[in-house]
Design a protein that fits this description.
Blueprint (H helix, E strand, L loop, with lengths): L1 H18 L7 H18 L3 H22 L4 H8 L2 H20 L6 H17 L18 H9 L8 H18 L9 H13 L20 H17 L5 H15 L5 H19 L9 H4 L1 H25 L12 H5 L4 H13 L4 E3 L2 E2 H13 L8 H31 L12 H20 L11 H4 L3 H17 L19 H13 L9 E6 L5 H9 L4 E2 L8 E2 L14 E2 L2 H10 L4 E6 L2 H7 L8 H4 L5 E7 L2 E7 L2 H10 L1
Parallel strand pairs: 3-4, 3-7, 5-6
Antiparallel strand pairs: 1-2, 7-8, 8-9
Helix pairs in contact: 1-2, 1-3, 1-4, 2-3, 2-8, 2-11, 5-8, 6-7, 6-23, 7-8, 8-10, 9-21, 10-11, 10-12, 10-19, 11-12, 11-14, 12-14, 12-18, 16-18, 17-18, 17-19, 18-19, 22-23
Length: 655
Amino acid sequence: MVFISVFTVLSLCFVLTAKTKLRASLTPLTVISSVLILLLLFGICNALKFGVYFVLVSAVLLLLWAIASEKAKLWSIFKRFACPGIAFFIAASLMFYFTLQWRNPALHQWDEFSFWGIACKVVLENDKLYTLVHSSMINISYPPMLSLFNYFIQFFNASIVEWQIYYSYDLIMMAVMTALFSRVEWKNPVTAVILTVFSLFALYSFYYASSGLYLYVNAYADVIVGVVFGGALAVWYGGEGKRLSRYLSTMAVLALVTLTKDIGFALALVAAGIISIDMLISGSSPTRSKKFIVRVIYPILLMLSVVVTYYIWSMHFTSVTSIARVTIPYQYSVIDMLMGKDEYFKVIVQKMIDALPVKMLVTFGTVSVMLVAFTVAPLLLTPFVKKRKNIIRIVCFTLLALAGFAAYYLFHAYMYTAIFPHTDTFDLYCYDRYISSYPIGWLIGGVAVMLSDISAPCVGFLKKKLKFLPALMIISAFLFSIWYYTPCNFDQYVYISRKVELPIHSVRESFRIAASRYEGVLDENDKLYLVCQGTEGAEWFLFNYEFLPAYTEKSFGGGYFVSKNPSDNQNSDLYGYPFSREDFEKQLIENEIDYVFVAKRDEYFDEEFRPMFTDYLGYFDDGTHVLYRVVVDGESVSLEPVISSEAMLAYKQEG
């Protein structure tokens, strides 16, 4: 049923090719962005399911209309549509589908359970934006575009299929890469082959920034927000002329960047700034007027569209949760920080500057090496550009991208200071992963610029065959560097070589088995509490994911209880929360907890809490891992085992 959604995207791509002057290779990303904007609006109106049906029906009707109205030109339209870019998109879609289906990878990283994976599950199983669902998932202020596209892809599924979450991400990334083919025709086979290899393998150059994440089996947003950021640049530089379709397509992709992740707002502003200046330099505003005041309206609208998109989501979030997205103001203003009044900020900035020549962000070198390479590569092509205006465009893009990175880098210094908790060691939390989003987009945008208007110094038939020769030489050298400089680990290239497993896979399996015992009985009105001695916090998110739609109360210390006596905790994990039996009983009563699940226990838990359980944790000992029903008698609490869904249903009927 996934193919219905993919076919819908391709149908709308054909309609855009038939009815606009937009190049066919730019249509997949344009369609995906436009569909997601529409679904967001339907979702805000709490009509998400209707929105998908509207898209599906509209796609069929528009396709029939395009075929009927362009009947005389149908063959020429099909030839324009059946270009190398669309061929790549279809082939990549099929490859990822069958590969992921074959290996059936599961969610396997911490933040996939803290937000990115569980967001997809909540939206799919409730047919609503997660802001409109009563659940225990956290960070619901995060933008929803990725979970919305997963919803669109898995719309006909009865329940979440985890490998299809990855498939939805991969489809967006391949739509971005397809935009790089916009000027490639079948008579450019060398270019098509090199771009195909680049599109599938280029992002592996950020191996050191991935923090052990698999590129195409990864539900984190850091990579994909960078890819979509590059996609906005690719759509603009891959288009041509003053066409309104080019402008609107770029605007739609910028909206996708904005609502892919919070940092997407900053990336979208950078992309909109680069595109706006290029629009003025190249004279490609969608207007025939030569008046500057008229031409500048379009760049202003482009920037405003990013801001409006961001505030539409912010206003929705605030209205349904009554929580302002603006956090508590930091003690220093941005101006104070830039003037050096904040000592913590000064140290963070210095640490980030020191990281430039030391931190490995790409396979072929440090951040400094990457900056030099990404800056120099497009400039090497200027001798092969005939028109002076296009030379200026390439130089401007390079300088603006470099300035954008500086602003992005400084913004992260602000985040480390004003948003993340302060530490004595001035930690740069997830530095590699967070910083990499920008250069990923810069790489894709740089390739789009290099392929936008290059005239190779060839003679005869070679001039047509190898139009992009200088750019292809640089791209080929880059691809070679990935292979040459990357550690020998075949898994990073071909993730299908083994099934991805969670490091605490056995824990998740026990949660899944336990949750299956109560499937169809637990609902959003049931409140659960997790006890997990010795945890570092991941188990709570696993439990929360597996036991949906029930509400999992946030466990103190992730459910890891330690003695309040400091002398008893000399060898204890600091993550543990000082908790006595009285504290636990009070927590269960005050939060109106219905059920408790014990995932792990230790000596302290046995001594302090075991008498609360009517079976003395007998079911835990034999490996059954059942839920325990909370029975309150005055100020005392006992916990009774619930061994099946039938038993739970009986308890509910009694109540």
